[in-house]
Amino acid sequence: MSTPEILLFASGDLRESANQTCWAAQAEMEAALTKVLEENGYALKRAHPFKADKGHGFLASQREGMDAFKDIDPNAPIIVAEAVWQYSHHVLPGLMHHKGPILTVANWSGTWPGLVGMLNLNGSLTKAEVPYSTLWSENFDDDFFKNKLSDWLKTGQISHDLSHVKPFQPQNASAQSQQIADELSKKILQDKIILGVFDEGCMGMYNAIIPDAPLAKMGMFKERLSQSTLYYETQCVDEAEAASVFSWLKEKGMKFHFGSTPETDLTEAQVLEQCRMYIAACRLADDFGCDAIGIQYQQGLKDLLPASDLVEGMLNNDDRPDAPDRNGTPIRPGKAIVHFNEVDECAGVDGILTNLVHRSLGQPVETTLHDIRWGDRDHSNTHDDFIWVFEISGATPPAHHIDGWQGTESYRQPPMYFRLGGGTMKGVAKPGEIIWSRIYVVGEDLHMDIGVGSVVSLPAAETKRRSEATTPEWPIMHAVLEGVGRDQLMASHKANHIQVAYANSKSDAIEAATAKACLATKLGITVNWCGTQQ
Fold first, then answer.
1. What is the mean pLDDT of residues 120-126?
2. In 222-328, which ranges are continuous DSSP H helix?
3. Crossing angle for the helix pair 143-155 and 16-39, nearest 10 degrees?
4. Which of 374-401 are b and which e, b meaning 16 or more Cβ less than 10 Å from the residue's Cβ?
5. What span, in angstroms and rounded, lies between the C-alpha atoms of 389 and 372?
6. Whole-angstrom distance, CA of residue 449 vs CA of residue 517
7. How does strand 102-107 pair with strand 133-137?
8. For the segment 209-219, what is each residue's pLDDT rounded down to a tens digit?
9. What is the distance between the alpha carbons of residues 505 and 452, in angstroms, rounded to a whole number?
10. Cβ 295 vs Cβ 301: under 8 Å
11. What DSSP line would sit under 445-502, residue for residue?
12. What is the band of 533 on the pLDDT scale with cuts at 50, 70, 90?
């Protein structure tokens, strides 16, 4: 009798430099999966070959993925294994038409964003209404992983503890929250909201694209813009205007780590080009009356300009450099222009709601998305809680950092991702109370998960350990989500990104979260309260 087979797919990056650099981690993960499946009496078979000429075995395009799926048994069990960031659309078409059981698996590591890649694929499958199961493990030998894997092998399904997720009850909200939601929902529907989208669909993030119909019902509409327009407008910005922005940053105390080799170091020329892009982005937001904008910043733009990270962080901060319009008048001075990193439209809508609610409540309006990059116990033994590492390359406002602008540094973006460099917005998130949330798509319906938590302070050595275990050039947040365990969040979260904003106190955080949940409900979004009850 032959050994039953499970087919393995490995979706990768579109950038071969990333696929080649990260392949070793993927190969290690696949070897561990092969071993544990053999112990269960199954053979793990790669559905597509290792490419010796490329130096990796990832599917590196949508066409490669389609070709890998076209000749397989449509009822075969499939594992999509991810130890790296991946472009979901490389495998999504095949998964959409597959009839057999699907399991997404990630390694529990911060080195390459495998957890982030898997959560993105999970969110994309959720939007496409494709049934799937999901698992994660550090070494693939723990009881949690082995028991859940055994369930899937026997039944084709895995159940997780989702007791932290409860339907939001708007009738239990305070009178203030209900009033703010009522006023803001009427204002949004009357005045309308525009999301400026600079080229949709960044990095295959199908889950980050909201269909027009549910947006329109909420009074929100897309202004579809091209990154080529952003590039052109960047070239039109006067060098003296860019120099003024750069001077403002330095006067605020922001630190830039410059070197002399542009291929590997951050240079002043790269930062000045980012300052020009900042002004150009503000002008285009002003031209089209955008309430928020999202820059794709990866494919296409990365070949023309330094990364937009510095731009995005400035935009999301109330305290930001003046960006003059074409007549020299500052554009929306002293107010953030909400930016949603990687054109994640779900984060864009969330960012707008956060901005409106927090400004109404007198709470800090600065907001950003983060990758759910990784998490670990505190090796310094300062805290007993499981502490998440939230991290994103762009969009983080300095208001979130310890010491604000003075605590913000800029390093060159890794050459693996950004050939032309550009400065990051590096900082350590300040201790305090936060609201976290995520809007996601199921079919064509919008849902929101929301809860509260806190950012904790860790000793410098522990912060360094966590940062160096991920991408040390990027900002980092040490987050504890109240009433939500590690495996609960992984099982329930339908996206690679999580939206965060600060509040002035614990009670303020609950009020702000409740008001935003009420507003989302008023706009037709199905809301779940996650963790500690509202």
1. 98
2. 227-236, 239-251, 268-288, 309-315
3. 80
4. bbbebeeeeeebbbbbbbbbbbbbbbbb
5. 7
6. 9
7. parallel
8. 999 999 999 99
9. 11
10. yes
11. EEEEEEEEEEE----HHHHHHHHHTS-TTS-EEEEEETT--HHHHHHH--SSEEEEEE
12. confident
User: Residue 90 has which token pair?
Assistant: 């490389």
> 297 — alpha (psi -120 to 50), left (phi > 0) or beta?
left
Token pair 């209404």 in the structure block, residue: 129
Helix (H, G, I), strand (E, B) or coil at 84: coil
**Which tens digit of pLDDT belongs to each residue from 310-340?**
999 999 999 999 999 999 999 999 999 999 9
CB 423 within 8 A of CB 309: yes
Give pairs for 230-236: CB < 8 Å, separation 24+: 230/198, 230/277, 230/280, 230/281, 230/284, 230/295, 230/301, 231/301, 231/304, 231/305, 233/280, 233/283, 233/284, 234/273, 234/276, 234/277, 234/280, 234/305, 235/276, 236/280
CA distances from 94 to 14, 203, 519 (A): 17, 17, 37
- Where on the phi/psi map is residue 120: left (φ > 0), alpha (ψ -120 to 50), or beta? alpha
Q: Taking a C-beta distance cutoff of 8 angstroms, is the pair 236, 282 a contact?
A: no
Cβ-count burial of 507 within 10 angstroms (0-12 exposed, 13-18 middle, 19+ buried)?
Answer: exposed
Mapping DSSP to helix (H, G, I), strand (E, B) and coil, where does residue 520 land?
Answer: helix
Q: Are 369 and 395 in contact (CB under 8 A)?
A: yes
For 247, residues 6+ apart whose C-beta sits below 8 A from its C-beta are: none
Name the token pair of 294: 């999202």
The length of the chain in residues reads 534
Residue entry with tokens 């389609």: 66
Q: Which two tokens stand for residue 508?
A: 């303020």
Angle between helices 175-191 and 506-522 (to 10 degrees): 40
Looking up tokens 């060098």, which residue turns up?
A: 239
Residue 188: how many other CB atoms lie within 10 Å: 20
